[in-house]
Amino acid sequence: MEVLNERPDILTFIKTICQERGIQDYTITNVSMNKKGEGFLAQFFMVTITDTTSDKHLDIALKTAFTDDRIRKMMPIRRSFENEAYFYSKMYPLFKKFEKDHGVSKDVEYVPKCFKESVEEHSEMLALENLKVSEFEIFDQTCLLDHNHISFIFETYGRFHAYSFALCDQQPKKYKKLVGRFNNVFENFLSDENGFFKEYLRRNVKTVRQYLIPGEDDELINKFQKYEDDGINRILHEIATEECDYSGILHGDCWSNNMMFKYEKTEGGKKLIDVRLLDWQLIKVGSPIFSVI
């Protein structure tokens, strides 16, 4: 709780959430934070809000933007939070309504519930459902995703992309207006005046190349060398500007840390039964293949 006392804006945000839900008297407990360095553009606070008159509680994952101007200058934090707040407040509800209007019988949730969002300068934040309470978990990033997980992810993306295509086809004006509000965060990475993100990608390419074996992988080594030297700008440019005849709305940041999985216990171990997609800050328009490569 001490760390929250240092952020009166967060306490005010929590108070507003409580008031909107009819909670007048409450306590804040079970406050925990993600580890330093785990969040690329944000910091998380896990809190439990308990209504003292009814003992009902609300478990929230508070996603808060970094306030340090040095970090904000390096990274497109504000534009990223504007994207995610827009996704939860406008876009996702529209998708769910579109789903309902077309009689889709299987009600599938793709994301955690969002209780409230704020895009106030230097105080951008989201109050999301704490999925850990519902037994969702992050996949161990030291392990490779197996076929079952990948199939589940592809199926989830497939539904999401299908609604995007259908909305574009059946309500093109609404679709155009919807995607017109996206901030193309990849353009920030492309300009990247201080070179932070480009150097980050360049190091990754160099690391991968080191696993290639001279004499056996010479063709691949030469290709990686090209990208290590001057290909990062081209990669970023293609990501930022890429569209095609079958473009749709994309998650924009597909990797296992941006998903949470739920399992059912079985005699042989556990069975994957659900997934939620996290971090919609890089949402963009492009080919669906971008989401899965």
TrEMBL record:
It holds the Pfam family EcKL. The keyword Transferase applies. Residues 126-291 form the CHK kinase-like domain. SUPFAM superfamilies: Protein kinase-like (PK-like). GO terms for molecular function: kinase activity. Keywords: Kinase, Transferase. This is EcKinase and/or DUF1679 domain containing protein. It comes from Asbolus verrucosus (Desert ironclad beetle).
